[in-house]
Amino acid sequence: MTKSIDFYFDFISPYAYIAHKKIKIINSKNRPIFNYKPVLVGGLHNLQGITAPAFIKSKLKHMISDCDLIAKKNNFDFTWNSKFPLNSLSIMRGYLFINSDIKSLYLDIMFQAYWKDNLDISNEKILITLLEKCKIDTNNFFQGIKDPKIKNELRDVTKVSNDKEIFGTPTFVINNKIFWGQDRLEFALDEYNK
Question: How far is Cα 36 from Cα 17, in angstroms, rounded to an integer?
Fold first, then answer.
C-alpha cells in the first residue's frame, strides 16, 4: 500500500490556500501523495461547537494580518477576500463531482480566484467563468452538484472528519496522527518520512 498524506481543506480557508501553495512547491522527486479531502469547515465548526474566527472581531483582525505575514514570508500572492466568509457548498461539492484528471487545475483556479484575485466564487456568473477555465461543462456541473450522492458524500466526509476529531482546515493526517494548520505541514512530512 502506498503511503500518503490526507489533506482536509475548504476553499474558504485562507490557511488551506497557503497549505495548498506549500504542497505545490514540495520537491516533486520526494513529494508524497496528498489525498485532498474536501470538508465544509463551517460544518466542522458546528459539529464541534466552535465559533469561527470570522465571527470574532479580534480573531479575524489577527487572522488577516497573520495570513499576510505568512504569504509574504513564502512569497505567495495573497489578497484577503472582501467576501470572507462565503458559502463554499457548491464548489466543494464540485470538487467531488468533477473528473479526477482536472481536480488539480480546479484546485488551483478556485483557490487563486478566492485568495489571490478577490473574487466571489459563490456568485454563479463568476463561477461559470472559472469552470470554463477548467474546461468543465457548466450545465453538467450544476446538475451534478445537486446529485444526492454528491451531497451525501460531502456530508459524510465532513462527519467522518469530525468523528476523527478534525475541527478545522487545513488538517493533515498520516499514520492516524493529526496535524492541524498550514504550519504543521513539515511535521506531517516528517511523519511521512519515518
Answer: 12
Give 79-103 pLDDT, tens digit per residue: 999 999 899 999 999 999 999 999 9
Residue 27 CB neighbours (<10 A): 6
Distance between CA atoms of 110 and 46, rounded to whole angstroms? 24
CA distances (Å), 97 to each of 12, 32, 138, 148, 150, in order? 18, 24, 12, 11, 7
Mapping DSSP onto H, E and C, the string for the chain reads CCCEEEEEECCCCHHHHHHHHHHHCCCCCCCCEEEEEECCHHHHHHHHCCCCHHHCHHHHHHHHHHHHHHHHHHCCCCCCCCCCCCCCHHHHHHHHHCCHHHHHHHHHHHHHHHHCCCCCCCCHHHHHHHHHHCCCCHHHHHHHCCCHHHHHHHHHHHHHHHHCCCCCCCEEEECCEEEECHHHHHHHHHHHCC
Return d(Cα 89, Cα 67) in angstroms, integer.
Answer: 23
Q: Are 163 and 155 spatial neighbours (Cβ–Cβ below 8 Å)?
A: no
Residues 6+ apart with CB under 8 A from 178: 164, 165, 166, 171, 172
For residue 30, pLDDT over 90 is answered with no
This prediction has a pTM of 0.93
Domains, the chain, with CATH or none: 4-192 (3.40.30.10)
